[in-house]
Amino acid sequence: MAHKTKTVAPQMVERASVDVEKLLDLLVRNAAAELTTYYYYTILRTSLIGFEGEGLREIAEDARIEDRNHFEALVPRIYELGGELPASMVDFHNLSARPAASRSNQHDRYGHHAAQSRAVCGSRVHEYL
Length: 129
Ligand SMILES: [Fe+2]
What we know:
Bound molecules: fe (ii) ion
CATH topology: Ferritin
Low-confidence stretches: 105-120, 122-129
Number of helices: 5
Largest sheet: none
Helix content: 55-70%
Order of helices and strands: HHHHH
Shape: elongated
Radius of gyration: 17 Å
């Protein structure tokens, strides 16, 4: 990822012996994971109905908002360091290292999506889903 503008932030990171390009790559991949997880929880929330679903719906909503906040916190850091998000949403999604979310495969009997969400975010909230 090329630096468009050289600001103070990348120089400070380099002075701390951190590879700015590597850091930017990780930050962009993490932003993709956060945004796709946010999307996943958004569509998951719509399918949580009934007595049991209502309780989970609150948890899903908390996780959804948390991941959106993580995404929004990451984006300014990426640009401060001279990076950018991919212009293509498809490319951005594919950096998330998770399969595309869809309503049809949210609830397989093995709970694959819950495990994937834990893997990409690491937030404690995800442990409940
Ligand atoms: Fe997150």
